[in-house]
Amino acid sequence: MSERVRATRVGVGRGSTLAATSALLVVGLLASFRGPAAGASGRPWSSAGRRHAQQVYDLRHRQMVARGLHPGPALPAPAASTAPASAGFAVRGVQQISHDMTTPQPGSEPDTQIEPDIAIDPSRPTQVVATFQQDRFPDGGSVDPGFATSTDGGRTWTTANLPGLTKSVGGVFDRASDPAVAFGPDGTAYITTLPFDASDCFNGIFVSRSDDGGLTWHDPFLVQKDCAAFDDKNWIAVDTFPSSPHYGRIYVAWDRYVGTQPEVMRYSDDRGQTWSDLITISTGTDGIGVIPVIQANGDVTAVYQNLDNGFVVSQTSTNGGLTWGPQVNIALFEGTEPPDMRTGGLPTATVDPVTGSLYAGWQDARFRSDGLNDVLIWRSTNGGASWTGPVKANPDSSGSGLDKFTPDIAAFGHDLHVTFLTRKKVGSTYSNLVNEAYTVSLDDGGTFAFPVKVGPSADLTWAAVAGGKFLGDYMGVAAVGGTAHAVWCRSSRPSMEETYHQTAWSATFKH
Fold first, then answer.
1. Short-list 340, 339, 347, 399, CA closest to 375
2. pLDDT of 471 strictly over 90
3. Cα separation of 250 and 239, whole Å?
4. Average pLDDT over residues 163-191
5. Integer Cα distance of 502 and 24 in angstroms
6. Which of 287, 356, 352, 355 has its CA nearest to residue 324?
């Protein structure tokens, strides 16, 4: 029996020596905490898996900060060729689409929405769904994820809590994290979440389903339930290609810490009601941040960071996820991070459903002399067997003092849409303001328009905190036809005396 929630309407107004050394450091430190927990840490929710996940992020943060604090000579940058700002795409509908709708819990950060994702129904492009965490806890998870849905192409939105997941909305878990959204070929919307308890080791992966395009939601379906293991950084994709032998199949992939940290997957062929046996993607390898990308012939390519060697890699399954081919190195991850902020540093990946090209990208400092990041893009035209690049998605010089981070990408019909956050640094001082930026390539990622700022600046004074000021490990952008929709979270001065104020925003980009 399913329980549904009716949403409320909101009106109009996501190869260097240094990198190789860092990769070895990952191996050594991961090895130091692969055994069982030695004892309680003083926090009841702190299972071995939860501690492991936090240690991985703390380690990556320290590595990225170290690279940023010690900038060195930049590698020769690829030639940058840019088109005029927005390259014929108009920016429309920039607006706040939601606000924190949960009831604060002890220890949570009230009035915070973070870490959003967004998807467009490919068969009905006016239908758009975004999702995000709400009321974040600084030590992990949120009181309950929320969603915002538009039925008119991003002009107006309805928003509510995701039902039946955490105790605050009638579910069984204390907290939930890492929401991601995808549409199926029949207009069904799916949101995957990572719920866990604060008082015991119970955690897992769930998927919520909406049969009306994101307006109301069933209680979530169980994908994976764990106690001895800890699940993290889940992602979802649905096969929407009629040419595929697995048309309609839902794939959910994630990191699963069981002493090692492989990337794993399950799939469903009945709209999320039942799921396959657990499948290991990265056998013998610790990974983080897996994204499954589906191709028109039904092949599935998983893109993630190999924690053992520091490379962002891809692996491809030619039989619907049952078995996986060898790892293909895309490039070393060489991102940086400011000392006062958690940016995620995870790779992003997508497929152009028209051309078949695969794309991967991330924040990276290899071409910088100031220790900050560019957004770099790689492309595969042979189903993930090999990759070319990188291409810079931003044209500024290696010492511009403008940091770019937390990118996302979406592709359709030779157009590659890229969103990312920016922050200025003058000397050793970072600005407290963060901006959402957008650029597009109209030639399969060969050249990019000059990026444009989208919406008002975020002020980190009122941002959530999780290992630093925190807007999310990822933001979102999705594209169908000549339209793209972005989602991001923005902190700003509250209307009353509060510590936090962080809301979900969206914008539409049209030819």
1. 347
2. yes
3. 7
4. 97
5. 37
6. 287
Task: For residues 177 and 195, give the distance between their C-alpha atoms in angstroms, rounded to a whole number.
Answer: 6
Nearest residue to 373 (alpha-carbon basis) of 404, 345, 328: 404
Domain range for 194 is 8-510
Cβ burial of 39 (10 Å; 0-12, 13-18, 19+) is: exposed
For the entire predicted model, the pTM comes to 0.91
Interatomic CA distance for residues 153 and 150, integer angstroms: 6
Mean pLDDT of 184-203: 95
Number of domains in the chain: 1
Residue 183 resides in a domain: yes
Element (H, E) at 459: strand 452-459
Q: Is the dihedral of CA 77, 83, 85, 87 positive or negative?
A: negative
Letter for the amino acid at 118?
Answer: I
Contact status, residue 471 vs residue 421, Cβ threshold 8 Å = yes
Residue 86's pLDDT band, with cuts at 50, 70 and 90, is low
Report if residue 213 sits inside a domain.
yes
Q: How many residues does the chain have?
A: 511
Question: Structure tokens of 61?
Answer: 């943060």
Question: What is the CATH number for 194?
Answer: 2.120.10.10
* Alpha-carbon distances of 460 from 341, 455, 463, 493, rounded to whole Å: 9, 15, 5, 9
Per-residue pLDDT tens over the stretch 135-169: 999 999 999 999 999 999 999 999 999 999 999 99
* Range 430-442 burial, b when 16+ CB lie within 10 A, else e: bbbebbbbbbbbb
- The alpha carbon of residue 318 and the mean position of all alpha carbons in its chain are separated, in whole angstroms, by 25
In-domain check, residue 1: no
What is 322-360 written as a DSSP string? SS----EEEEE------TTEE-----EEEE-TTT--EEE
Residue type, 98: S
Residue 3 lies in a domain: no
Average pLDDT value for the chain: 90
Token pair of 285, please?
């390898």
8 A C-beta contact, residue 179 and residue 117: yes
